[in-house]
Amino acid sequence: MLAVCFSLLVMLNISLALECSILILAVSLGLCLKFGKHPVPEENGVKTTKQFEQTESQSAENTVYKIRTLANIIMGFADVLRDEPLSKEQTKFTKAIYTNTKALVEIIEEMCRTEESEPGGIWPLQSSKWALDQVGKAGKRAVEVTERIEKQTELHPQAHILVVDDVPENRLLSELLLQKAGYRVTTCCNGKEAVELAKKQKFNVILMDLKMPVMDGLDATEIIKSQGLNANTNIIAMSASSMKSDKLLCAEAGCDDYIAKPIEKDLLLRKIKRFIRESKQIEMVSQGGDITSLLLDDPNYQKTIEMFINNLPERIRQMHEALDEGNLEDLALKVHALKGLGSFAGFAVYTEKARVIEEEIDNNELGKIRQQLDEMAKLCLRTKFRRP
């Protein structure tokens, strides 16, 4: 396994270097056009600078996507190797690859701000001195990230994760990381396969890539969330795109969270762990007993938890009052506030209840809203600050 990982790292670094060369060429062409150092293309005697810049911008964005995808694989395998017994030379080599790749990604993200630049381009207008400064800063930040990566020791032998990604190396990497963290893993290579698998078995979390052949991640998420065994399963979208609009599209499709590639192992595992614990809390509510915060053991959240519990009865009373008065607009505001506060205080059960009530408000289902509020009032009596 070590030999395979090292071989993959070498080959992937060569690919990454080629993609970076393509990006540099595209950006250089754009700069030449922008500052008039070369003739502007003409079509029927009419200059087409804007069209050319838009084409080059799209090409550069596609190259950035490829670079981020490669960087995700490289950093992932380097991360896997760091947890293995390595020689001093191997450790140095692996850390250098991780750090340099991380630095490269950060530099590219600084240079290529598609949505923040003027229309038609991702042209870096900064000086060469700026670029050199960014290299130093990004390298330093990458080392800091590498050194603070946390070890994940808590295992979840019953948790089953579905990984959906069209890149074989990404699937292999995700499988290695998740299995090492104690999860059961199933993988597939496009959205259509994910939909079929979701019909047959229940998963605890689904990791969904966005850009895939046959069926993309957004369409697959909408179908999975619409009905069936995994309608309530948390889906984390994964994307190597640098477009900010992707997050909005993911939310509209029904994704519960979003993580950008290159994926940081500790961040991904924290998100998965949080979703599994939240689902467990919601499932246990039906079994009776006290309800306590998922953040109860974190001393930084003690005041937040206590305040949430103390204010909960009054919040529920006010929601009942708004319903009695027929003021659905005021009720929607109060329910939305509870949804956010429940998540922040570690009470996923109230976040889920609030989500359901929001849907019922949109459909004007007054009877169901009252039923949910009555159930919430009963849950409030079982909500405790301390474990029994």
Task: For the structure shown, list the relevant keywords.
Four Helix Bundle (Hemerythrin (Met), subunit A), globular, Methane Monooxygenase Hydroxylase, Chain G, domain 1, 388 residues, 5-stranded parallel beta sheet, alpha/beta, 7 strands, Rossmann fold
User: CATH fold name of the largest domain, please?
Assistant: Methane Monooxygenase Hydroxylase, Chain G, domain 1
* Helix/strand structural class: alpha/beta
Helical content band: 55-70%
Strand order of the largest sheet: 4-3-5-6-7
CATH architectural group of the largest domain: Up-down Bundle
- Work out the radius of gyration: 25 Å
The number of domains: 3
Distance between the termini: 47 Å
Write the H/E string, N to C.
Answer: HEEHHHEHEHEHEHEHHHHH
For the record, the CATH class of the largest domain is Mainly Alpha
The total of helices stands at: 13
> What form results from the Cα inertia axes?
globular
